[in-house]
Design a protein that fits this description.
The chain folds into 2 domains: 2-164 and 248-295, Rossmann fold; 168-245, DNA polymerase, domain 1 (Orthogonal Bundle), CATH 1.10.150. α1 packs across α4 (81-96), α2 (31-47) runs parallel beside α4 and α13 packs antiparallel against α14 (281-301). With 305 residues, it is an alpha/beta fold. The protein has helices at residues 7-17, 31-47, 64-68, 81-96, 109-122, 157-164, 171-178, 193-202, 206-211, 213-216, 227-233, 235-245, 267-277, 281-301; strands at 2-6, 51-55, 100-102, 127-130, 145-148, 153-156. The longest helix has 21 residues, at 281-301.
Amino acid sequence: MVYLIDASVYVFRAYYSMPPDMTDRDGNPVHALFGFARFLGDLIERAKPQYLAVAFDESLTTSFRNRIYPAYKANREPAPPDLKLQFERCREFCRHMGLAHFGHDEYEADDIIGTLHARFRRQGHCTTVVTRDKDLAQLIREGDVYWNYAENIRLRHSEIEGHFGVAPERYADYLALTGDAVDNIKGVPGVGPKTAAVLMKAFASLEEIYDNLDEVATLPIRGAAKLPARLAEHREAAFLARQLTEIARDMPLECEREHLLCRGPDVAALAEFYDRQNFGPMLRRQTERLVALATAATAVAALPG
């Protein structure tokens, strides 16, 4: 099993939930860094992954989606300067932990995870996607797990539709119709989750919906008679929305499975890192436990047979 971590959602969660008075030697806030470091260490202790990758978002404005649709995520406020600094230190923490970590100016963390997922699926490996972002549910296939770590919700492929209202394979089509207000994606006005869910069950794809608009009027949906005209009017917006909501799975990324091997912490580097951040004994004790885990895993791997 390969673990793919959507880092940004956990950094943001820590930033807004941890006490902001934690500071480094220079007085810079480090609460998001501390929360992320604790989350990642806890996850490794709990799951004991052999292969793991951490994916970061680099920018809200330079994604290839911004070229397609300049208003993409334009409703979001820029990250505060102290949060940007903490993101950089989160990546430094991953490096000292011996973990593969990735970021890209033109692709988002979702696309990094999507590309790694697709690559390892082709090689016969299942993945656990660790995130709170519902959009990543579209990646889950048989044998995979969607793990909302903060709420301890684990969903397998067969459970995604019951939880999110639509099968993983149809999620991008679903969002193409409903839009996604979080990312400033409009979709088709007047088509909400219930209507979109009925359309997903009645038709195999967004293309099939638009090839059979006359049949849409016969579906058990309130206002079905007017729905074909509304869909036709906003056809361009729907297909644009799918371009934006569909996770890329073929971005340029140099990575093989052995690059994702959890190699164990660099104890000396982490000790110096913790000193600079003014971190106390909690993470240091966790580092000791993680070193013991890595040592035990290495010993098991070295056994004959």
